[in-house]
Amino acid sequence: MNIQEALVAGVIMVVTHRVAQKEQAVQQQTQVQRQIQARKVLLQRQQSQIKQGQINRLTVQQTIVAASLALVLVVDRAVVHHHHKEGALMGKDYTQREAFYAPYKETFFADFIDLEYALYDVMVLPKEKIDEIRFASQMLWGIFCKVAQQLPHLSKEQLLALGIREEMLPYISLNYLQEMAVLARFDFICTADGRIKCIELNGDTPFLVQETFEMNDKLCIEFGVNNPNNTQQFIKGMSQALFHAMHYLNKTHTPKVVITGKEADDDFEEHCQVKYIQRVLPFEVEYVPIKELIIFKDGPQRGLYTPSMERIDVLYRPAHPIEFLIDDVAQDGDCIGLQLLDLVRDRELAIINAPAAYVLQSKILLWLIWERRNDEVLFTKHERGAIKRYMLPTFLSDKPFKQAGRAFVKKPVYSREGNTIEIFDAAGEVKIASPNRHYTDNLYLYQEFAKMPDIDIRLQDGIHRKKWLVGSFIVDGKACGLACRVGNDITEWDSHWLAIGYKD
After folding, report:
1. Which among 131, 170, 213, 310 could disulfide-bond with 231, CB atoms 3.0 to 4.6 Å apart, if both were Cys?
2. pLDDT by residue (tens digit) across 209-237?
3. Residue 275 three-state SS
4. Alpha carbon separation from 28 to 31, 111, 135 (Å, rounded)
């Protein structure tokens, strides 16, 4: 069975599964139809008033954001107020940067060896733009989860054709949390003409956590603007995941909870991310470096242990992806990563995120969703509208773009930090390519190129023109945090972090 045959069969299965659920979904939607219709009438009246000059456009945009999420998609785009140049910087004396970050040098990675990572500035976005990014995140999260939840029902051949590694097949259905991933992050491009376009979902172990939920607030206070991020929602979501994990284990005793990652000497950035999460969780969590975890694969001691031989019930792994875990091998050759997943499968251990997040990390979802964008059985009217508005055309071949003479991006299905990505111009020639090539053995997909907006940032050696994109965090199913990455046409490891704020 080739890829196309596998995918056609898979889509049929997905659609069939959704048909059985359609009646229930319709019943649920009916409960809100009267309310939706009433708000439609209100919006139509406001649009009519605009044409008569009775209401300004900004007022209408604020009203739309406050309305039902479903209604945002039916608003005439001509009514939406866009800023041509978004992301104005506050600007302060650059010499104050070192003094500002100095108190956090032991707990936050403001600088890498040769990179000024954390910028001393705040990007001020219009409040309506922040609200739309949140809305887009919320809508797309439901869409991504709806499709991802169907993948475990596909055949082995279909899953392999979609780039799912064979080693993961026994574990992708392990989804014991309330959401497929308690912590995830969308990446959006805010185009010059006011559009918001999703380029990917980081569904397993997204970085920028400490920047978003701790340091962003400190920068906003420093520059006198409002912080759009909800740290309490982050803490609440990460905490609730523990209770779902314990329910999965069916254990009533006080759980042994461990958070793991690399040590500071090995990867200071990762270490800071992990230690930040440990600090904010409102229950006892022990930090154990990942290389010090002890696993017994069989016998009466079967399980995962701390160096002091305390058996671990729940393991937070905020920086160690599943696709890395399955390749973890001990010095004696034992596949300790797969042994750990076996413990999870047998309910001897729970990990956060759950193994099902591996599917959400796959960029194949970008294609699956776009391929079925007009499916009235799989997606509601508002979901179909959100796909067309916020997602980019994505295919398993570059042929549609070459035939249409449109620029596109070639991406591995499993990749991180821009690694192995190539940008092609309208003539089908490579324009820009990542120098890092660690994911060449992946299945590839092809996504329409969306140009990132420019921004001038101040570094120690002067002003630099860069590109920027927005990361939008989903925690326990809710959009609650924004982060800006500033880099080049391909956003790689050497990008900068920039705080986001807004004014009243």
Report:
1. 213
2. 999 999 999 999 999 999 999 999 999 99
3. helix
4. 6, 50, 20
